[in-house]
Each structure stands twice: as C-alpha cells, then as structure tokens.
C-alpha cells in the first residue's frame, strides 16, 4: 500500500479506546492526529502517550478538524448517535464501535445519514476479521460442509468489565445488556447463515445472577429462525469464569467446531482450536496468526484504512450493524413478553 497515512481522529480513551489508539499508532498506513476525551485525567494520559496528537475535550471540535479523514468512535453506547452524526455532517468517514446505537431508530438514522452524504461507515464487529471466526466463514463459502443448517455461538465468562464510571451496569446507558456481548454472536450467526437469507423470528430467555439488577442479563440464550428452516442458537453466561467462546456449524455435508479460551478476554496468549469435518475426514486447521480481539482490532484498523483510501467495503457495514441492534432488541422484547417475535414486525432498512 502506497500513499500518505490515513488520518484518524479518535473519540474515547478508555481501556478499549486506548487499544484503538495503540492499533492506529502502530499501523504504518494510519496516523493518529487527534483524540477527544471525556475527562482532564484522560486528556493528560493521552497527551503523555501521544504527544503529536491534538487533544480535545469536545468531540465536535475534533470532527471539525479539517485534515481528519475518519473518526473512530469508542465511547459508551448511549453517546454513539450524537458523535456519529457530528462526524457524518462534518464529512468524515466513520468507524463506529458496536453496538452502533442503543435503539433501532438511532441506528437507522445513522445509516440513512451516512448513505445520504456518501460517508463510508464501518461497524466494529471485528470478530469477522478473526483468523478463527472469520476462517469459519471462508470454509462455509468454499462449500466444505455443504449448506449450513445450524449454528451455535456460545460464551462463558466472568468477570465482566464495568466500563468507565460503571456505565455498562447502568441500564439507561447500556440500553440492553444483550447489545454488549451477544451482539457479536448474533452478527456471526447471521453472517454464517447468509445463504439462508435474513432471520425471520427470534425467541429468547434470560436472567440475572444478581436479583438487585434483573434487567441486566448475565445468562442469555436466543434462537434465530430462518425461512428455509435453518436456525442458530446464541448463548452466554457472565456468571462463569475467565473467557471461553465456542462456535459450531453443522451443514448438509459436514461440520465445523471451534473454541477459544483465555484467562482474560484481551490476552495475547489464548488457547484455541478449529476442526473441520468435510463428510469424510476430520482435520485440524491452524490459523495464520493468533486470534483474539486485540489481534482482530489491528485488522479492523487496517480494513478501515483500505475503506478510506481504496473504497474497499467494510467487513461489517452500517446495515450489518443495524441488523445486529435490531436482533438484540427483539430478543430482549421476547424475554419481556415471553413469546417469539417476528423480525418483520420491526422496522428494517
């Protein structure tokens, strides 16, 4: 890749925001030129770590900086719409962390604004770029297991991150806890079952291990049903230990089974496996490099560079992000109303 580095403005400098900053800074095709932060303590930390970047306390000022080409938003979920709209109206391309918004209406508004103004919009479903979870999609597309008919994506984890000032435990800020971890798994299941069209019905169940906050679901399971009879199960518990993820895909010819484990979710030394049965034999597939969200974030930044510079489509578009938000919120509606929810009842793009 040749040419000048793509100039990034970063909004948010919490734990995950700092990893975004690191991934941008370490990419030779990217340049971190500005950071917007919430507190003076974060501002000072950003100045110390990235002295060449301009530090703002107001994201709107960052969006107005003329030389910024793409704004990377890594802030609490309830702030996403206002920041995204400011970036879009300033003519900046956008990398927006998941969930892209906490309501279907807000997600639709972001997608529509980006489309109307010709803004390239990527949503942070970085698991698609994994050498493990992304490789499963490639194996499916090669026809190795035939037509996928069943997908299981499962998470077992504890502890769960509070977020800055505990925002992830504030129901009004997080929107729905289903929008936190399960949103990644809805996205993967929908991606793997793309040949079956869109999900047509969702039914879910969930509960909390802390009865003082029943609205925040530690245990959650949902079934996504597709018109051709294929279905997916998305399940998690945040009352377990460490961080473990499993994916299984069964097709008309064979199957895939994969797992990932780490003492911490952002470990650089996880254990993992990927096995493929093609209907005749089982083989173990070794990824080209290590998997885990730290590695996938680096790939996401590079893909964002290519989106801005070369017009390459994002690995997960605004429409993908909208679908993920919608499926999560319909799943929570299913839990509240104790019934299956037709997806066609929700506004779709």
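^ structure tokens above, recovered residues below v
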């Amino acid at each position: 890749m040749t040419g000048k580095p793509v100039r990034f403005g970063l909004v948010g400098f919490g734990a995950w925001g700092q990893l975004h900053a690191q991934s941008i800074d370490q990419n030779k095709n990217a340049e971190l030129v500005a950071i917007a932060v919430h507190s003076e303590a974060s501002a000072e930390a950003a100045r110390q770590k990235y002295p060449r970047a301009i530090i703002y306390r107001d994201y709107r000022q960052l969006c107005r900086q003329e030389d910024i080409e793409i704004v990377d938003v890594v802030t609490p979920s309830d702030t996403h719409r206002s920041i995204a709209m400011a970036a879009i109206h300033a003519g900046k391309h956008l990398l927006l962390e998941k969930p892209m918004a906490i309501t279907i209406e807000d997600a639709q508004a972001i997608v529509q604004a980006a489309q109307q103004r010709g803004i390239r919009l990527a949503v942070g479903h970085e698991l698609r770029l994994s050498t493990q979870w992304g490789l499963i999609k490639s194996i499916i597309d090669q026809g190795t297991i035939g037509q996928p008919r069943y997908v299981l994506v499962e998470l077992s984890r504890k502890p769960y991150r509070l977020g800055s000032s505990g925002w992830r435990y504030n129901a009004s800020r997080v929107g729905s806890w289903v929008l936190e971890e399960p949103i990644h798994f809805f996205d993967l299941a929908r991606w793997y079952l793309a040949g079956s069209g869109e999900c047509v019905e969702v039914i879910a169940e969930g509960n909390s291990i802390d009865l003082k906050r029943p609205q925040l679901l530690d245990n959650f399971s949902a079934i996504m049903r597709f018109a051709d009879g294929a279905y997916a199960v998305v399940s998690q518990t945040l009352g377990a230990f460490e961080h473990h993820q499993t994916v299984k895909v069964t097709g008309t010819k064979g199957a895939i089974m994969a797992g990932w484990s780490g003492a911490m979710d952002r470990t650089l030394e996880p254990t993992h496996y990927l096995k493929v049965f093609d209907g005749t034999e089982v083989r173990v597939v070794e990824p080209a490099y290590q998997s885990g969200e730290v590695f996938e974030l680096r790939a996401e930044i590079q893909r964002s560079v290519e989106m801005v510079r070369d017009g390459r489509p994002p690995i997960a578009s605004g429409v993908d992000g909208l679908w993920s938000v919608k499926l999560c919120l319909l799943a929570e509606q299913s839990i509240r109303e104790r019934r299956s929810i037709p997806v066609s009842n929700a506004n779709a793009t």
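The chain is about 30% helix and 25% strand.
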